[in-house]
Amino acid sequence: MFELLGIPPQALLGQLLLGLINGSFYAVLSLGLAVIFGLLNIINFAHGALYMMGAFVAWMLLNYAGIGYWPALILAPLIVGVFGIVLERLLLSRLYHLDHLYGLLLTFGLALIIQGLFRNYYGISGLPYRIPDALAGGYNLGFMFLPKYRAWVVVASLVVCFGTWFMIEKTRLGAYLRAATENPVLVGAFGVNVPLLIMLTYGFGVALAGFAGVLAAPIYSVNPNMGADLIIVVFAVVVIGGMGSIMGSILTGYFLGLIEGLTRVFYPEGSAVVIFVIMALVLLVKPEGLFGRAT
């Protein structure tokens, strides 16, 4: 059928795989946003800058401390998460009882500051990050050559996304988190340290951004602007899936990555805007998002 349209099946399958890889980044980043908004009601516009910071931390661990990719995959998210905890304690904790707009403006300002600091020190030219030896090379699928590292990105993102969903939706800790967002006074009366829970939740959300940054470092050049454009797309993914919906963000991220890949085959000029067109249509029909709850 696709050959009748003048589209080789190899090109279609290749773009679908590339779309799945992009969708993996969309899913992990939108998951972090959904965790922070769904549990803390903060629109974290600094998420893209923290994603960039995760990539830079991995690069600095390699070049300044000789720490390779696999330890950095754990250390970089932890460092970014600790940085997020400091931000939450010093700044964001003062805004929980205010309108969402204040949190958005604060995190937007933080994003500009973080990006500006890295831009002043490292410039805007990309810094290379070597693919680990264990993931060098690729697989010949017949219709395309799939690098092992890109296959690893898809697998790692799936494990992290659905592991996070299981923790929040199916465990006692997740139940405490969800209860603390609904009625923090009542949860605190049962002896739960609600401020500590909120602080760790924000740290975990931004650690997910740092994890995505480490995954992205060997694929994209590490530079201060790498999260600036991506965060706009990720916000669109979260809005389509439903603000605060964990599973909605995961499924929508992968789905929109595939849609973006298909658009590159049938109408390449529209691939940059197709996600925003879908967002507009979803908001017209279901303003709370595909998986969100009406308020």
From TrEMBL:
It holds the Pfam family BPD_transp_2. Keywords: Amino-acid transport, Cell membrane, Membrane, Transmembrane, Transmembrane helix, Transport. InterPro entries: ABC_transp_permease, BCAA_transport_permease. One of its GO terms (biological process) is amino acid transport. GO terms for molecular function: transmembrane transporter activity. One of its GO terms (cellular component) is plasma membrane. It is found in: Cell membrane. Its main location: membrane. It is a multi-pass membrane protein. Signal peptide: none annotated. The chain crosses the membrane at residues 12-35, 42-62, 68-87, 99-118, 149-168, 230-259, 265-285. Belongs to the binding-protein-dependent transport system permease family. LivHM subfamily. This is Branched-chain amino acid ABC transporter permease. It comes from Pontibaca salina. The lineage of its organism: Bacteria, Pseudomonadati, Pseudomonadota, Alphaproteobacteria, Rhodobacterales.
